[in-house]
Design brief:
three-stranded antiparallel sheet; mainly alpha; 181 residues
């Protein structure tokens, strides 16, 4: 007989390699947690992150991307002024129906995917819920702002009665179903 330790789990085998004895589920889980911890330590060391910095630090390149995205957001502030003063009050769009059908198709796909992933208890539902929430919010915004004066009341009722409540539901689902560390 021989005893081998792999990732903190002792295994006793006879001469032909069959495992002897039993382990409880807690012992298996404990060994898996130790192994996962060791893999995380090795991954962090390889990425240049010290174990004292914690998992929130992440790779160094995320800091630079964060700086770039923050700068891009700030650079858009003057651009908003250019758009507000330079765009015409009305414009004839050539593919108006295709744009709205495409947006509504993406919303339908997002709602279907979110529902399917939620039924399966898949953590990726947080991603589709967040994207669907954003799409529905954009749809409500443009429905109201691009509607003809005669149709504005209908657009506001649709936004307040359907689009914005589903937007809020999807946003809450995105937050609550997002996997926690």
């Amino acid at each position: 007989m021989s005893t081998v330790t792999i990732s903190g789990i002792n295994r006793t085998t006879d001469r032909i390699g069959r495992q002897r004895g039993t382990r409880t589920l807690d012992q298996v889980r404990g060994g898996a947690a130790i192994a996962a911890s060791r893999v995380a330590d090795v991954s962090s060391a390889a990425a240049g992150v010290s174990s004292t910095a914690g998992a929130a630090a992440g790779p160094r390149w995320t800091r630079w991307i964060g700086i770039g995205l923050t700068g891009a957001g700030l650079a858009m502030v003057p651009w908003l002024g250019v758009l507000a003063t330079g765009l015409p009050a009305s414009y004839h769009a050539g593919n108006w129906n295709a744009a709205w059908v495409g947006l509504d198709a993406l919303e339908a796909l997002g709602l279907f995917a979110t529902g399917t992933l939620l039924r399966r208890r898949d953590p990726r539902a947080a991603l589709t819920a967040a994207a669907t929430s954003a799409l529905l919010c954009v749809d409500a915004w443009f429905d109201v702002l691009t509607s003809a004066p005669a149709d504005r009341v209908t657009a506001i009722v649709m936004a307040a009665g359907a689009e914005l409540p589903i937007t809020a539901l999807c946003a809450v689902l995105a937050v609550r179903t997002f996997p926690q560390r």
